[in-house]
Design a protein that fits this description.
By secondary structure, the protein is of the alpha+beta class. The chain has seven helices and eleven strands.
């Protein structure tokens, strides 16, 4: 799930449980962050402050400072799994750019961490991984993982992307002025545009990067049973 996060140590060991997007304990952090500057987060990061990576990282900072101090990097689940398979260390940690709108700390339009947002929330940049493209090779399958998975040792591993980004690409959302409607437990309405347009007025849509460079996919998500 794109919204979840794991805190890792120097050797890529998990120092926190997987903090899933279904775990809403970070709502206390959300309220505080909203008061501190949600408008600026939407403007630069492309998403309201929701139950996702940014609020979860801030929740660990607020509620478990001793664990937060030990964490070298926070990474999404896809990064954690690929890093295990490639034998990465914390210094190699990465996040692909289809995830960064959920972090609250990124300048999504320019594909970098935002010094302004990091200063606003007093969040240390060294806890964040480098930003890469979904198609970048991040390492190769180790012998240990080759033996347990059946994959050939040395097989290149690419960074990959978020599930919503992958489904949008797979459904053919590859040029501007297209719209995709996904029905399911989490129903998603997604458009494709050629410029970064955060929803600073209604604060409903998120504006993530498409896998395809130069395209954006403004979206709204509806959970089943939500009023």
């Amino acid at each position: 799930m794109m919204a979840g996060i794991v805190g890792i140590g120097d050797g890529w060991e998990a120092l926190t449980p997987y903090d899933s997007g279904l775990d809403k304990r970070c709502e206390t952090a959300i309220r505080r962050m909203q008061q501190m500057g949600e408008n600026k987060v939407i403007e630069l990061c492309g998403s309201p402050i929701i139950v996702a990576q940014g609020a979860k990282m801030y929740w660990w900072k607020m509620n478990h400072p001793e664990v937060f101090a030990r964490v070298k990097k926070f990474v999404p689940a896809s990064t954690y799994v690929c890093g295990c398979m490639a034998g990465l260390k914390a210094e190699d940690a990465y996040i692909d750019y289809t995830h960064i709108h959920l972090t609250c700390f990124a300048d999504v339009e320019h594909n970098v961490w935002s010094g302004e947002l990091l200063k606003l929330f007093d969040f240390p940049e060294e806890k964040l991984p480098k930003i890469v493209a979904p198609y970048d090779v991040i390492g190769c399958v180790t012998r240990e993982w080759a033996d347990s998975s059946g994959l050939r040792e040395g097989t290149p591993i690419v960074a990959g992307c978020g599930d919503t980004a992958a489904s949008s690409l797979g459904a053919g959302l590859v040029r501007k002025n297209m719209v995709l409607d996904v029905a399911g437990t989490a129903s998603v309405l997604t458009a494709c545009v050629s410029e970064y347009r955060p929803d600073t007025e209604k604060k409903i849509l998120i504006c993530p990067r498409s896998i395809i460079p130069g395209l954006w996919t403004p979206s709204d998500l509806f959970w089943a049973g939500r009023p």
